[in-house]
Recover the amino acids of this structure.
């Protein structure tokens, strides 16, 4: 998804902006650009494709200046091209704008501006903004303030202008995040703190409806209607090193291997094994309020939605309360049945997903309390919720989510145990036993990864498949969905996740020797039933890859390949099941020569609808 960086200070802006821009590559984009105030001119360089292409353009026509903005664009309005790449400018080349989000009323604005004689050079919604600013007099911040009054939609903007070469203006309205960074030799602007971490960890997030003017005199923060805002910067808990690859060929592989640590950090300090209690300091809801909850709604998108589906099983088992799970983009427009006795739990790695934020606003407007399960401290979701349960996965750079997912599962286990205790549906002994098993999951995950070489060979058998079917039952069904999603996201092989019992109602028609079936079949309540489904596949010449328990003797005779999972509680096992599924997808994708960290058409965090 689009990324913004900006710099104003005593150093040459060009190389700093390019360095920061590269740190945003992981988010997914299809064109890029940079704009700098050079003496009394505005110099823009833009290109379609990767940042390396923009670097080539800059090599031929370098820029120099002490204030600039840059952008990675993920096409929404208009195809990926140099003309549609940001920054966008006005007729007189006096103002340059980078933009994340969508201007909903860009069509009427464009028509009005064109009738006043403005000429447009792109198909984007963004380009109306520099033209609107151009048509206003006065200092850049005043002109901007007036211009944004015309805009409808969600947007984060970075603006520079020849009128005021010593200023960089930042504007935030609605979803997309925007952060100011304070470094000794300059001020930064970014939509993602990890872009500026080598320069500073001191940051200030703009709230919705705020505008900041960055200049040699510091940062002036105000609301759109001109009220001064006084807020202190906070410190980002990650350093630049944490956000790099650390010797692994891909971020995704590094992040898969980080899972034992991520799960340990997510549970660390929260589980009180002696008391059989979970301490969740930022939950924002007292035990009494939790006991009164009559219904829980989980909302999320993508991989986080799969975590929610697992969460439903755990919450219903331990808390005996009805749980509904909804894809956030569906939930927000239904209209949902929610009241003050409903607890909404919103799950999002980034905390910036527009649909999830929309769902949270919908719930809150109907009186529901909202708890966020989120990986980014201070994200929009964390700020807009009544309470937060942070996962401590660390920055996740690979677009396909791995360690954020398993940390979400661990966080939901903690939440369920906490709620079960508060509601009296879980005894201290049962809570203690589960917490002990949860505390052991990082060790089991580490052992499993130590045996992961076998998955390279199994993954290579998927490489040439046109389609793969993933089957699971009960709490493992969402893992079938997640396994299939991982494979399609990064290898572009078509894959479907199905509840194994549903296979006979349709997907069985697909089975032949060319369609591999990944069967998630650990021992447990539904083992025998899943095994019958595996036999149905074999009876039709299907190839079976089984993810099974370590001491299962039967499965070897029924599957072509078996990868074994250690034993743990059925409720916690999905955390371990996720690992081989992630690695199968990873190896298949690498063997196919795919860009696993930045798959085509995907974005790490989708901040528009
Ligand atoms: C995008 C990413 C997915 C992610 C989803 C939800 O589609 O590519 O990997 O699962 O957004 O993101 P969130 O940050 O809300 O968990």
């Amino acid at each position: 998804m689009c990324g913004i960086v900006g710099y104003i200070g005593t150093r040459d802006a060009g190389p700093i902006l390019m360095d920061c821009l590269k740190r945003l590559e992981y988010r997914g984009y299809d064109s890029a650009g940079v704009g700098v105030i050079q003496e009394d001119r505005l110099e823009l360089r833009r290109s379609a494709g990767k940042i390396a292409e923009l670097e080539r353009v800059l090599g031929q026509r370098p820029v120099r200046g002490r204030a600039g903005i840059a952008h990675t664009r993920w096409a929404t309005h208009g195809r990926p091209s140099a003309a549609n790449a940001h920054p966008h400018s006005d007729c007189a080349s006096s103002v340059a704008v980078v933009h994340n989000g969508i201007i909903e009323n860009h069509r009427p604005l464009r028509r009005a501006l064109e009738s006043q004689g403005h000429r447009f050079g792109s198909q984007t919604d963004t380009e109306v903004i520099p033209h609107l600013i151009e048509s206003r007099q006065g200092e850049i911040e005043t002109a901007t303030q007036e211009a944004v009054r015309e805009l409808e939609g969600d947007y984060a903007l970075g603006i520079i202008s020849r009128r005021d070469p010593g200023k960089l203006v930042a504007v935030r309205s609605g979803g997309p995040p925007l952060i100011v960074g304070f470094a000794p030799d300059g001020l930064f602007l970014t939509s993602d703190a990890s872009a500026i971490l080598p320069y500073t960890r001191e940051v200030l997030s703009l709230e919705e409806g705020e505008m900041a003017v960055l200049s040699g005199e510091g940062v002036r923060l105000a609301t759109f209607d001109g009220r001064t805002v006084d807020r202190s910067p906070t410190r980002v808990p990650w350093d630049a090193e944490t956000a790099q690859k650390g010797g692994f060929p891909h971020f995704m592989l590094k992040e898969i291997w980080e899972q034992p640590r991520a799960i340990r950090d997510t549970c660390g300090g929260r589980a009180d094994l002696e008391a059989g209690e979970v301490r969740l300091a930022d939950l924002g809801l007292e035990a009494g309020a939790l006991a009164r909850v009559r219904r829980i709604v989980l909302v999320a998108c993508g991989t986080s939605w799969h975590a929610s589906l697992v969460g439903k099983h755990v919450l219903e088992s331990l808390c005996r309360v009805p749980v509904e799970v909804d894809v956030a983009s569906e939930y927000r427009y239904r209209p949902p049945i929610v009241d003050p006795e409903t607890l909404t739990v919103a799950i999002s790695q980034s905390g910036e997903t527009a649909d999830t934020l929309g769902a949270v606003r919908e719930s809150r407007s109907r009186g529901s309390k909202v708890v966020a399960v989120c990986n980014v401290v201070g994200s929009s979701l964390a700020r807009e919720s009544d309470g937060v349960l942070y996962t401590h996965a660390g920055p996740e750079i690979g677009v396909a989510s791995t360690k954020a997912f398993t940390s979400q599962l661990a966080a939901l286990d903690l939440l369920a145990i906490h709620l079960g205790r508060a509601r009296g549906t879980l005894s201290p002994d049962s809570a203690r036993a589960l917490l002990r098993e949860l505390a052991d999951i990082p060790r089991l995950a580490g052992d499993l990864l130590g045996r992961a070489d076998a998955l390279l060979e199994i993954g290579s058998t998927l490489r040439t498949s046109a389609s793969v079917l993933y089957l699971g039952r009960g709490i493992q069904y969402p893992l079938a969905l997640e396994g299939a999603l991982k494979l399609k996201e990064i290898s572009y092989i078509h894959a479907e996740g199905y509840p194994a019992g549903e296979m006979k109602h349709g997907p069985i028609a697909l089975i032949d020797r060319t369609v591999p079936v990944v069967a998630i079949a650990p021992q447990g309540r539904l083992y025998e039933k899943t095994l019958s489904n595996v036999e149905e596949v074999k009876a039709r010449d299907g190839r079976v890859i089984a993810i099974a328990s370590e001491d299962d003797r039967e499965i070897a005779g029924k599957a072509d390949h078996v990868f074994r999972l250690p034993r743990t509680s059925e409720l916690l096992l999905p955390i371990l099941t996720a690992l081989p599924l992630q690695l199968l997808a990873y190896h298949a994708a690498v063997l196919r020569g795919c860009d696993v960290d930045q798959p085509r058409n995907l974005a790490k965090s989708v901040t528009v609808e």
Q: What stands out?
A: The radius of gyration is 25 Å. The chain has a mean pLDDT of 93.
